[in-house]
Design a protein that fits this description.
By secondary structure, the chain is α/β, with parallel strands linked by helices. About 45% of the residues lie in helices and about 15% in strands. It binds 6-O-phosphono-beta-D-galactopyranose.
Length: about 475
């Protein structure tokens, strides 16, 4: 039995971003339209000329931009990582990163999803990014789908609600895994796969107006993603047996609001519904409570013969997850005040402080999450997102004194270390938004997570210059001391 004193040797320290929030270059290099590019249209239910917009020519792009310039700006331009990745990776190397988590932009590789051939220019872009990382011995950790898919597949099949998308995704995954088989070892199939249920367009490319029952369509889409993830895992092992394939969950630990058994039961149900995703991807089958849950909600999942076997035979090598906050469950939630937004809307926990966006600060919850996941599955874990969204101030002398971010990261890393000492097998930690990027939920630039500041405001104005925040030097020391110097 290993008596762990601290983080193991070779612990993968690093940072994380996603293509749709960082790259920009939305119409560069032959890239097609992705769901992330269209979010403003769908939020406003503005479907006018959508088909026309799918054909990327400068005229239609201009039209799109003039139509929705303010709302359309952020994700389409990101922080221009597309052109500045060398400068950014040099900063990550200076931080001492062992790993860097990023996603491949699916429509950069297959602009429409169903194209006969991949887009060579897109493939070459990631060749250059991975080569640059390798130059500094930084191990890429690659998400195949982070909150996006080609819009053409959305229009044709209503996103993941259509079973046909499985084949297109597997082909895309096979293409990039083959191309980068000597450059990338760690792969994640879907970012926060549970988003498909919580935000069907963001997670599953589902246009809700097109379905009668959103919950039915979302669980069906999720099933297709599970099958696709397993088929990709099977292919991955054929392409390179040394690949390590992980699932990725937005872990939402739910505490009961009181010790009333009804509240405890509700918290258990909410936790089970969150862990359903890892149950399928790690254990290889749906948990038993799902049959009753689906039937009580009028949901019937269409499964093809062979699906169960596919899920059973190709489970993941490791479990990755994001952790930002903890949530609270009650049988009568209306009796309590609510806080938070997007994925993390919840009852207020009187014991916790909150960020400006209402996310509750709970470092101990990370230890709880780690211990519980390890107890349940006995697979290596990887914290691939964790961080504090905050508004930063640039002082007159150019410094950014983000002590609040240091405090957040220190407390969470301390709890992670405690979990490691409890015996949890933890592979690594990538803080979210190592460099400031566009927020997923608010599309703002000013909700910043980075230890590197990017000069850009919520309207896309700024030099895009990069600056080191106070947390940069702090995180550098943490990594150099393998988590001893906190
Ligand atoms: C996760 C997503 C990320 C990310 C992060 C922070 O749910 O995987 O893409 O953005 O949350 O959220 P936000 O940007 O909304 O503050």
């Amino acid at each position: 039995m290993i008596n762990r004193q601290g983080f193991p040797e070779g612990f993968l320290w690093g940072g994380a971003i996603a293509a749709n929030q960082a790259e920009g270059g939305f119409d560069a290099g032959g890239k097609g339209w992705s769901t992330a590019d269209m979010v403003p249209y769908f939020e406003k239910k503005d479907y006018t000329n959508l088909r026309e917009l799918m054909h990327v020519t400068s005229a239609t792009v201009e039209k799109a931009m003039s139509h929705h310039s303010a709302e359309g700006y952020p994700k389409r331009y990101g922080i221009d990582f597309y052109h500045r990745f060398k400068e950014d990776i040099a900063l990550f190397a200076e931080l001492g990163f062992k790993t860097f988590r990023l996603s491949i932009n699916w429509p950069r590789i297959f602009p429409n999803g169903y194209d006969a051939e991949p887009n060579e220019e897109g493939l070459r872009f990631y060749d250059e990014v991975f080569d640059e990382l390798r130059k500094y011995d930084i191990e890429p950790l690659v998400t195949l789908s982070h909150y996006e898919m080609p819009m053409a597949l959305v229009l044709k099949y209503n996103g993941w609600a259509g079973r046909e998308v499985i084949g297109h995704f597997v082909r895309y995954a096979e293409t990039v895994m083959t191309r980068y088989k000597d450059k990338v070892k760690y792969w994640l199939t879907f970012n926060e796969i549970n988003t498909t249920i919580i935000e069907p367009f963001t997670g599953g490319g589902i246009i809700e107006d097109r379905v009668e029952n959103t919950m039915q369509a979302s669980y069906q889409a999720l099933h297709h993603q599970f099958v696709a993830s397993s088929l990709v895992t099977e292919k991955a092992r054929q392409i390179n047996p040394n690949f390590q394939i992980g699932c990725m969950l937005a872990r939402m630990i739910h505490y009961p609001a009181t010790s009333k058994p009804e509240d405890v039961l509700q918290a258990q149900i909410d936790n089970q519904l969150n862990l359903l995703h890892t149950d399928v991807q790690v254990r290889g089958s749906y948990p038993t409570f799902m049959a009753r849950y689906w039937s009580e909600n009028g949901i019937t999942i269409a499964m093809e013969p062979g699906d169960e076997q596919i899920l059973r035979e190709h489970t993941v090598d490791f479990i990755s997850f994001s952790y930002y906050t903890s949530l609270v469950s009650a049988v009568n939630p209306e009796e309590y005040g609510v806080t938070g937004g997007n994925l993390y809307s919840t009852i207020k926990n009187p014991n916790l402080e909150r960020t400006e966006w209402g996310w509750q600060l709970d470092p101990i919850g990370l230890r709880v999450a780690l211990k519980e996941l390890y107890d349940r599955y006995q697979l290596p874990l990887f914290v691939v997102e964790n961080g504090l969204g905050a508004k930063d101030t640039v002082e007159a002398d150019g410094s950014i004194n983000d002590d609040y971010r240091i405090d957040y990261l220190r407390k969470h890393i301390t709890q992670m270390k405690e979990a490691v000492m409890d015996g949890v097998d933890l592979m690594g930690y990538t803080n979210w938004g190592a460099i400031d990027i566009i927020s997923a939920s608010t599309s703002e630039m000013s909700k910043r997570y980075g230890v590197i500041y990017v000069d850009q405001d919520d309207n896309g104005q700024g030099t895009l210059n990069r600056y080191k925040k106070k947390s940069f030097g702090w995180y550098q020391k943490v990594i150099a001391s393998n988590g001893e110097n906190l």
